[in-house]
Amino acid sequence: MEALLRRCRVPALGARHCGIRAQHGGTAGRPRRLLLSQLFQPLALPVGGQAGPEGRPGEPTCRSQRLMLQGGLIHPTSPGCYCYLPPTVRAMEKLIKVMDEEMQAVGGQKLNLPSLCSAELWRASGRWDQMGPELFRLLDRHNHGYCLGPTHEEVVTALVASQSGLSYRQLPLRLYQITRKFRDEPKPRFGLLRSREFYMKDMYTFDSSEEAARHTYEQVCAAYCSLFTRLGLRFVKVQAATGSIGGTTSHEFQLPADIGEDRLLLCPQGHFAANVETLNGEQTSCPTCGEKLTETKGIEVGHTFYLGTKYSSVANAVFSSAENKPQLAEMGCYGLGVTRILAASIEVLSTEDSIRWPSLIAPYQLCFIPPKRGSREEEGAALLERVYDDLAEALPHLAGDSVLDDRTQLTIGKRLKDAKRLGYPYVVVAGKRVCEDPPVFEVWNQNAGEVLFLTKEGVIELLSKVQVP
Amino acid sequence: MEALLRRCRVPALGARHCGIRAQHGGTAGRPRRLLLSQLFQPLALPVGGQAGPEGRPGEPTCRSQRLMLQGGLIHPTSPGCYCYLPPTVRAMEKLIKVMDEEMQAVGGQKLNLPSLCSAELWRASGRWDQMGPELFRLLDRHNHGYCLGPTHEEVVTALVASQSGLSYRQLPLRLYQITRKFRDEPKPRFGLLRSREFYMKDMYTFDSSEEAARHTYEQVCAAYCSLFTRLGLRFVKVQAATGSIGGTTSHEFQLPADIGEDRLLLCPQGHFAANVETLNGEQTSCPTCGEKLTETKGIEVGHTFYLGTKYSSVANAVFSSAENKPQLAEMGCYGLGVTRILAASIEVLSTEDSIRWPSLIAPYQLCFIPPKRGSREEEGAALLERVYDDLAEALPHLAGDSVLDDRTQLTIGKRLKDAKRLGYPYVVVAGKRVCEDPPVFEVWNQNAGEVLFLTKEGVIELLSKVQVP
């Protein structure tokens, strides 16, 4: 049979197919240039006074939703459901890499739990009834009930409970996943800020004592702080309500923003920060220092819960203690909104008409703009392409992060305007000074708001500092 | 407000939290060693005559399902739904990287489409009725109907149709995603080979003519051949039925295996290969050369369809032709089963009691086994750890791919047996010869079935050839 199989494979692997593949570069050799005209990023940028898409009629919009629709980043299908278009997937994959690094730095182990969660399991925890209409529910062909998991406390606790012989020596267990979640929002709105399908990073931790679990809680919170700091996002960590998840201690990570749906009260001295939903009545001054609290609105991007044994006692998730006795695991759970962080970043960093990304996770780091076809500087096109290719060779980690705006029927000014709106951290232009000897290129550092004039070597030197996850 | 926020962040970023993080190594500096005792991989390996889990009572099992359950790779929740445990997630992420490379080498652009697909859209294509009970269906809180997408022809075609002004110059468009899919199988079985939730890579292509679409079809098939070849899997490409997806040409990529659910007829000379479901009656000889056809069974791991305008005509997915006339796009769709390829690889490569992975996507490339605690060779433990650390420094791409089996209460023999069952491509043992000068280590190349005795430098030299995606 082996001979037979080898024979059958010949047509698929023969010279003809290799020839076809060679046209596209393949994985070996110099990566081909990414041409903007070939990228699927259907722009609906406003031209002059004409407005781009504003969401569905009657749907409330916010800056990030509008910019993401106009910039070809998302496309709506049903209320609260979006296609994530290629640049969004790129940003999301970068964000996921950063999250993986942070979670693994605190001992996180990644798994992947089913979306279909059995009604039986959710009835046992009481959440089947408690969640009400927020839960998407369905029946399979045998009439067994399921919900589409918005979080996975029940499933992961049952998983750990099934591991007979779990020893205290194996704890803490810090298990996480980064997967699509579902919530039937009463009013999906604001694009990816409040959608019915979204990606979330959720971690579940299992410790041998309350003290150990509190230590885990602090470590995961610190990892969240590190993440937002690396993204360059200003955030506040506030005390929060535990809601339907339950537990006794909870914090939210909030990005202050006018569009935020949470009201926060903050001590100007940094002694106290709370979501107002946790406060009884009219608290106006800091319980520690007495300073008057300031109110702001925030977008929740992370949420942590100290759960105790709420779920482990239902599923009987036990470990053998040092005294060889079965003991319930002390749990915590920790969520980061992946798609929500993308939108919230755009919400807080962008201007009215120009997207700004956290540099680390921008879909593309670089846009190259060659001269207009037929212009006096036209010969500069080859020089710019040389910068593109040499940069890709010198800084291979940026090779796939560079786009060449080959729409040379348009002026540089028009294309630069688009590049500014789309928010590439760096834009390299072959302008008038490309005809000098040596050629000089215009480099826009958009997040710093500065323009530099540099030779090819200067461009490569400058960009050698750019990080990608 | 800025001052206020800065203040609020101080506690989160202060020395106390940094101190906590430092204990875990973080992303900078030498990566900590991965200790097997701390990894969440609940083994249920058979000990002596005692059998491990065999699936649920009455559920048919196969080799890959049994080995994946025993090896702590998957854990069942509901029929056809599994938790993917950490080693499986690692293998899956590696496989996805290889798929991304292959898809992007043929111009694929990655997006991500919603799981909730509106009934309306599926009624328009006729598949709402046609798919019958295989479709998971649900209502949202407003009584709007949805299915959980098993594939996304309707959604992606509507997306492309919504792009007014699409020009023939922008074609071909080759859009793909790698996401979780749903199918209410009548009989979920064989673990990840036929489950109700699974990951699939699905590509949808849009071309300006039938000729161009046929060219795309060949290119994507060639990319599939390249993928399976890189994984070292023997496969056959056979003509296939188009089923509920539709279209006029279709091929399956099959891994020959006794457990396979498809019956294939192959010409021993390689002139002809077909799924029997495409043949009328009793075809026994090759239509080209007249040779007698051989029958084999196969596991379908990929499926390609030339669709023509079946979906583009429903959604009116048009582009402007060179003559500036609207013209329907010619489509193709292409699927690879991600989780199914993982299980099928184990099915065809493993022995009865030992997992074997395609080397490229093994969860971990390397397992280090130090001597038993209290044995004569005990001092060799430090020497082996030195190999681990120096290898991680010399070959940083393998740093995260190495595991130290620190269960030193067990004999080397017992741990080596586990390592063989779990299928690390390489196992490095500090055996008797670790006491020689210079120390000599035992290296098991499990996929080649050979043992080498090497110095530290020899180990690093040997492993420098190991590829990770």
TrEMBL record, chains A, B:
<dbReference type="InterPro" id="IPR045864">
    <property type="entry name" value="aa-tRNA-synth_II/BPL/LPL"/>
</dbReference>
<dbReference type="InterPro" id="IPR002314">
    <property type="entry name" value="aa-tRNA-synt_IIb"/>
</dbReference>
<dbReference type="Pfam" id="PF00587">
    <property type="entry name" value="tRNA-synt_2b"/>
</dbReference>
<keyword id="KW-0648">Protein biosynthesis</keyword>
<dbReference type="GO" id="GO:0005524">
    <property type="term" value="F:ATP binding"/>
</dbReference>
<dbReference type="InterPro" id="IPR036621">
    <property type="entry name" value="Anticodon-bd_dom_sf"/>
</dbReference>
<dbReference type="Pfam" id="PF03129">
    <property type="entry name" value="HGTP_anticodon"/>
</dbReference>
<keyword id="KW-0030">Aminoacyl-tRNA synthetase</keyword>
<dbReference type="InterPro" id="IPR002316">
    <property type="entry name" value="Pro-tRNA-ligase_IIa"/>
</dbReference>
<dbReference type="InterPro" id="IPR006195">
    <property type="entry name" value="aa-tRNA-synth_II"/>
</dbReference>
<keyword id="KW-0547">Nucleotide-binding</keyword>
<dbReference type="InterPro" id="IPR004154">
    <property type="entry name" value="Anticodon-bd"/>
</dbReference>
<keyword id="KW-0809">Transit peptide</keyword>
<keyword id="KW-0496">Mitochondrion</keyword>
<dbReference type="GO" id="GO:0005759">
    <property type="term" value="C:mitochondrial matrix"/>
</dbReference>
<comment type="similarity">
    <text>Belongs to the class-II aminoacyl-tRNA synthetase family.</text>
</comment>
<dbReference type="GO" id="GO:0004827">
    <property type="term" value="F:proline-tRNA ligase activity"/>
</dbReference>
<feature type="domain" description="Aminoacyl-transfer RNA synthetases class-II family profile">
    <location>
        <begin position="93"/>
        <end position="358"/>
    </location>
</feature>
<keyword id="KW-0436">Ligase</keyword>
<keyword id="KW-0067">ATP-binding</keyword>
<dbReference type="InterPro" id="IPR050062">
    <property type="entry name" value="Pro-tRNA_synthetase"/>
</dbReference>
<dbReference type="InterPro" id="IPR033730">
    <property type="entry name" value="ProRS_core_prok"/>
</dbReference>
<dbReference type="GO" id="GO:0006433">
    <property type="term" value="P:prolyl-tRNA aminoacylation"/>
</dbReference>
<protein>
    <recommendedName>
        <fullName>Probable proline--tRNA ligase, mitochondrial</fullName>
        <ecNumber>6.1.1.15</ecNumber>
    </recommendedName>
</protein>
<comment type="function">
    <text>Mitochondrial aminoacyl-tRNA synthetase that catalyzes the specific attachment of the proline amino acid (aa) to the homologous transfer RNA (tRNA), further participating in protein synthesis. The reaction occurs in a two steps: proline is first activated by ATP to form Pro-AMP and then transferred to the acceptor end of tRNA(Pro).</text>
</comment>
